[in-house]
Design a protein that fits this description.
Blueprint lengths: L2 H34 L3 H4 L11 H5 L7 H32 L5 H10 L5 H15 L5 H25 L3 H9 L4 H30 L2 H6 L7 H4 L4 E2 L2 E2 L1 H34 L2
Antiparallel strand pairs: 1-2
């Protein structure tokens, strides 16, 4: 067997494995998509030909589910989390990247170490603290919790992007008379924009999909979409057609967002990988 034949066999095996992986990932999504347009009795039948219906999407927004209010809560919490987290994380990341700070390594390690603490360990202190200060079942409480979750991740990620920006560019601008603030606004931020967008996307996804803290810290007014999925139960068991319709509503913003910013997303990931 020649080297070319061996390469063709290896390539064929790789293609088969990739197709298998794609199939495994797509099957649940396809099942959810089909179930969202089925009647309850059709969900339990493995057939591709059925009479589609849109009533599931109307039911989930009516009583007793009120998915619209939960959609608003998730959107507000995720967007505000990103709007607050990215500017603060950018300032912190720039400081770590461009200045030699006392205890810099220890601070970076401590920031990273917060990601290793299981959420179930710190949920009780958050619950007690929010109960005492009146933040239980509020969007503000969820935003604070999500900021604590995404901020360390955002700092480390954005620092990697800023590290990839040539320092000579900033020094040349400062020699020409630009201040540090002007350099950041006119050079660093535009060059790091794809990276900031990438970090913002990840932060939005984390906040959008957060489940455990929302489960414990909300009850009625600030319930988010992931928690709302637990409501789709009836006397006949889980209402998979309604669950699937709600699941599509949860996934749809992620797909739309990915389609809109996919070019910048790939550019940001590539930029963060270059040193």
């Amino acid at each position: 067997m020649t080297g070319r034949q061996k390469k063709q066999i290896v390539d064929a095996i790789q293609i088969v494995l990739i197709l298998i992986a794609i199939f495994i990932m797509l099957v649940p999504i396809i099942w959810i998509f089909l179930a969202a347009f089925k009647n309850h009795v059709d969900v339990y039948q493995l057939k591709l030909l059925f009479t589609p219906t849109l009533k599931n999407f109307g039911i989930v927004f009516d009583a007793p589910y009120y998915l619209g209010a939960k959609l608003i809560n998730s959107t507000v919490v995720a967007l505000v989390t990103v709007v607050i987290a990215i500017p603060i994380a950018t300032m912190a990341a720039y400081s770590f990247s461009r200045f030699r700070l006392t205890g810099e390594t220890a601070m970076l390690v401590m920031i990273l170490a917060t990601q290793f603490v299981p959420a179930v360990v710190i949920i009780l202190p958050f619950f007690v603290m929010f109960r005492d200060i009146g933040l239980l079942d509020t969007r503000s409480g969820l935003i604070l919790v999500n900021l604590a979750i995404v901020m360390p991740f955002a700092i480390w990620m954005i620092k990697g992007f800023i590290d990839g920006i040539p320092l000579d560019t900033e020094e040349a601008a400062m020699v020409d008379g630009s201040s540090r603030i002007q350099v950041i606004l006119n050079i660093v931020l535009p060059m790091a924009a794809p990276g900031l967008l990438t970090a913002g996307i990840f932060c939005f996804i984390i906040a959008w999909n957060e489940f455990l803290f929302a489960l414990i810290l909300t009850n009625k007014d600030a319930v988010t979409l992931p928690i709302g999925l637990a409501l789709f139960k009836g006397e006949e068991g889980d209402l998979w057609n309604l669950l699937s319709a709600a699941g599509i509503i949860i996934m749809l913003p992620m797909f739309v967002l990915a389609l809109i910013i996919r070019k910048y997303f790939v550019q940001g990931m590539t930029m963060g990988a270059v040193r």
